[in-house]
Amino acid sequence: MAQRICPIFLSILVGITVFTSKISYAEDYKRTVITDPSISRRCELLTEKRQEKIANKQRILAMIERNKHLQKITPENKVTVKKKLEVNLGHLQHELILTQTQIQYQEENIVRKGCPGIAL
User: Fold this and answer.
1) What's the rounded Cα separation, in Å, for the pair 86 and 70?
2) Looking at the whole model, is its pTM more than 0.70?
3) For the purposes of burial, counting CB atoms within 10 Å of the CB of 53, is it exposed (0-12), middle (13-18) or buried (19 or more)?
4) 99 and 49, same structural domain?
5) DSSP assignment, residue 74?
6) How far is CA 11 from CA 3, 6, 7, 16, 20, in A?
């Protein structure tokens, strides 16, 4: 009986050893993959530009909200102030459209340049 268990035990032990060695090869491969530093620097620059554009978009949205609030609380007899706020709102909306276009361009540029591991 012990002679029957021994080959089964050995085959299980060999199977486990082979399985763990395959896992370690995959981990070694991940650690040894060489990434081109110029690609990673370029990708970092592209993502930084994108983050700047997104921050700019957030600022513009905050200014639009503030402008709308100011339009609501401005007295009716302040005609020139109301007109200036309306013109300013138009400029802010135009800037928002431009910023959104620039963000879209940056995202396309990141994908086009082939930056690995970046989730947009």
Assistant:
1) 10
2) no
3) buried
4) yes
5) S
6) 13, 9, 6, 9, 14
Alpha carbon distance, N-terminus to C-terminus of the chain: 61
Range(s) of the domain holding residue 26: 1-33
Amino acid identity for residue 102 in this structure: Q
Give the residue ranges of DSSP H helices in the chain. Answer: 2-32, 37-73, 79-113
Q: Kindly report, residue by residue over 31-77, the tens digit of the pLDDT.
A: 555 556 667 788 889 989 999 999 999 999 999 999 999 999 999 99
Asked if 114 and 62 sit in the same domain, the reply is yes
Quick one: tokens of 49? 């530009």
